[in-house]
Amino acid sequence: MLEVRPVKLSDITISDRARQEIGDLNSIKFSIDKVGVLMPILLNDKLELLDGERRIRACQELEHETIPARIISGISPEDKLLIERIANTDRKDFIWAEELELKLRIHEYHVEQNPKWSYRDTCEFLGVSLGGLSTDLQMALAIRTIPELAKAKTKRQAYDTYKKLGQRVQAVQAMESLPEDERNRLQQMLDGKVPKSKDEAASSDMPEVLAFDEDTDEADINEHDLYGASGDKVQFVYQICKWEKLLASIPDKVIGLVELDPPYAIDYNSLYASDTNQNDEDWTLEEFQDNMSRLLDQLYPKLLDASWILCWTGYEHVEWLNGVAQDIGYGIQRPGFWFKPGGTANSLKSNLISNYETYLLFRKGQATFNTKSLKAGFECESVAASRKYHQWQKPLEVYQRFLDALGRSGSIFLSPFAGSGSSMICAALNDMIPVGCDKSSKYFFQFYKTLKEHLNVEQADLSALTSMDSD
To answer: Mean pLDDT over residues 414-437, rounded?
Structure first.
């Protein structure tokens, strides 16, 4: 016979218990104080305790007079010991990940009921510290993004793994937190179906993407403006357009790293060019300042929090660029230099040989390096002339240095002046999603070929290139 009723704590007998250590009662006291005793204790018909000593001790400390109990009659001394063993060995406590998920659900529930509800309110409700709750909720959100974190034996081990994967987790979380229309627009872009602008996303048909191979005529390419690929091994977007069009199709807070390598506007032909290496694609100073001031301003909201921009430039523009970036809100610093063997000058007796390139780093928010440090100056060989298909092509080793220090795996790597696409190839090798554009299609096929070579990708893995169409 089983009976459930309130029983006075003073009437309960606790004796001959195998459990000697009661442990910390703060958590169970907090639970009982908030919602009462959810699970009745177990007693025999003589009101001797069979299971629930911790609940009894907690109620005593809370100065309760009664506790709900199940009363079982006909229990032998042997049955009593067996019940205690089963109750304490078969009970499965919350694993740490389940506890964190429950905290997060409690917080989310109260925020839904009261938009003004804060972390501090949840702390007071749960009786925990603000710092501890913040870490726990951050980890719970990370587990929703990467469930494998919950397989760690302890919360400490999971947190160590989270810190190693932190940039990837943050990037994925940022993309998943976009409004549905923005998330759909981002996916369309990565699938090779990009609206011309955000405003056109809901009203215009997606442009049909050209099916092409290495034999496609360049005149046909210029009739289209978008190339993208996605598959198990590679995903990229290379758009033939000016940077304004590409940037208009990207939602806010999804870009993990930007590489800017615009025309330098340094009067290269007069100072450095020989008859065989003239630069016909340079900007005037007015074009440079107009494009860069608008580009840096429009990039800021597109970046993830605490992200970087790597900007290659002529040393003539360092002070001006840093000033513009600082006015927009970026953190700035002194320039860095890539030193390389060789170099050129059009008058060796009067002009210094140019054997370096200048770069600047702009940071959004409290960005820090992934590495312990990053030297401003470094040496690296240029791309051999026999392997170069773009006049200003930089080696992958140069980009790898910066991706190690600045990259956010899983996020978008943006190159608005893609050219040879070398930086995008390096980004793909580092588990980022390369997105870039160039005003000319002349380098695209070689980029596509080189991408496949580096990633060891067969044509089938890039089948999206020839199968994308407007639905």
So the answer is: 90
